[in-house]
Amino acid sequence: MTIGLICAIPQELEALRSDLVEAHSEARAHARFVTGVLDGYDVVLAGSGMGKVNAAIVTTLLADRFGCRTIVFSGVAGGLDPELSIGDVVVADRIIQHDAGVLENEKIRTYQPGHAPIINETDRLGYPVDPGLLTRVRERLDGFEVPGHVVYGTVLTGDQYLNCDSTRAWLLAELGGQAIEMEGGAVAQVCEAFNIPWLVVRALSDLAGGNALFDFTAFVEQASATSATILRRLLPVL
Ligand code: ADE
């Protein structure tokens, strides 16, 4: 069985596409799926485009049409944890869709996707990574050197690029989290529906505050390459 790899934007995709061999490409929905071999492992690499719906379409196709055994997202994110810097890597051990929930008092009360208080309540918030996969990932990355630090933690997903200091502080106070991005929570939700393991690897291109769009432009290539390096290191345990 093959491994599904997803990137959202061309810079993330290019960091993996160039080393894929025996590549065969086909278009499905809005996306292109490249089947090939990366470092000796059978993979299907897809460029999803940005946002949760785009990521959900591609993840569904990788699971159902391409029969992937595991699906991994590799790319960039904005850093939330004040301990982290641009270039550091966050491997999600849990993902929360921060923009799903109840709108009240002009704010969102984040809630599990597919649920709402009173209507169909749940105690769950977010999606945990498969514990066995996480253990293998930690072992495999232990002592592995990349330009930034590698940490494990909560990643927030939403359909907004965060470029705002006050919203960043509010999200951090409400939900915590190490990084914010726009696809991982959808990958996790779809994989859970298909009962297959998922992983999200994100290198920080910016810190999601008021300079985030400028920093992104400067660091997106470097961060995409770091994330791709981590992903390739992980192929044997996926
Ligand atoms: N991906 C990279 N940086 C991001 C940010 N600041 N907000 C959302 N997604 C991102």
Automatic annotation (TrEMBL):
Q: Does the keyword Hydrolase apply?
A: yes
Q: What class of enzyme is it?
A: hydrolase
The name on file for this protein is adenosylhomocysteine nucleosidase
Using the record's annotation, list all stretches that form the Nucleoside phosphorylase domain.
2-235
Residues in coiled coil: none
What EC number(s) does its UniProt record assign? Answer: 3.2.2.9
GO MF terms here are: adenosylhomocysteine nucleosidase activity; methylthioadenosine nucleosidase activity
Q: Which domain of life is it from?
A: Bacteria
One GO location term (cellular component): cytosol
Keywords from UniProt, A to Z, are:
Amino-acid biosynthesis, Hydrolase, Methionine biosynthesis
**Biochemical pathway:** Amino-acid biosynthesis; L-methionine biosynthesis via salvage pathway; S-methyl-5-thio-alpha-D-ribose 1-phosphate from S-methyl-5'-thioadenosine (hydrolase route): step 1/2
Q: Name one GO biological process term.
A: nucleoside catabolic process
- Keyword Metal-binding applies: no
